[in-house]
């Protein structure tokens, strides 16, 4: 009996403490928020047919991106402004903005970089996915903003097509030493 009361009380207490659920957040607080589950919230466009209206509407959804050590986070308006991000960004946030010098200078400025761990964590991971590191990018940004843009643009994560000849032998002589020729 005590165990049942404990479980019921735990569920009641969890709801009373106000867990953050992305689907329950207002549209204006969705992007750059993290649910109690540790997953990032994502603003999506709802098609007119799915919401019964004639205009597209927005809806906050839970993404599959998990953030460690930052559950229940709603980014402050100060950080949104300091970092130069848009609270109404729809869909997954991409690394494209990292090649914009104006954005990178705001992201790397102390007002953002030292005070807004959620935004910095997001773009840190996006920079890693592009084959560079945000601290390195910010260091370059302080000394040579144009080089920072080139660094992320040429990170090589989106390399072009490779010709089939690149994987073939350089000459027929090299085949003589291969295991298949013995």
TrEMBL record:
Source superkingdom: Eukaryota
Signal peptide annotation: 1-18
Keyword set, alphabetical order: Signal
UniProt entry tagged with the keyword Signal: yes
Transmembrane segments: none
InterPro entries linked: PAR1 (IPR009489)
Pfam families reported in the protein's UniProt record: PAR1
PANTHER family per the UniProt record, alphabetical: NTEIG-E80 PROTEIN, PAR1 PROTEIN
Protein name: PAR1 protein
Species annotation: Camellia sinensis var. sinensis (China tea)
């Amino acid at each position: 009996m005590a165990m049942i009361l404990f479980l019921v009380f735990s569920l009641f207490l969890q709801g009373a403490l106000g867990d953050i659920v992305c689907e329950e957040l207002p549209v204006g607080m969705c992007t750059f928020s993290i649910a109690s589950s540790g997953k990032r919230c994502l603003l999506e466009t709802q098609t007119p047919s799915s919401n019964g209206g004639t205009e597209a509407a927005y809806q906050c959804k839970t993404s599959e991106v998990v953030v460690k050590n930052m559950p229940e986070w709603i980014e402050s308006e100060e950080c949104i402004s300091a970092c130069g991000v848009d609270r109404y960004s729809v869909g997954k946030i991409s690394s494209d903005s990292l090649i914009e010098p104006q954005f990178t200078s705001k992201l790397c400025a102390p007002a953002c970089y030292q005070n807004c761990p959620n935004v910095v964590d997001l773009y840190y991971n996006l920079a890693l996915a592009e084959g560079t590191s945000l601290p390195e990018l910010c260091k370059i940004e302080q000394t040579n903003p144009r080089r920072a843009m080139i660094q992320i643009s040429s990170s090589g994560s989106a390399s072009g097509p490779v010709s089939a000849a690149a994987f073939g032998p350089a000459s027929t002589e090299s085949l003589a030493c291969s295991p298949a020729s013995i």
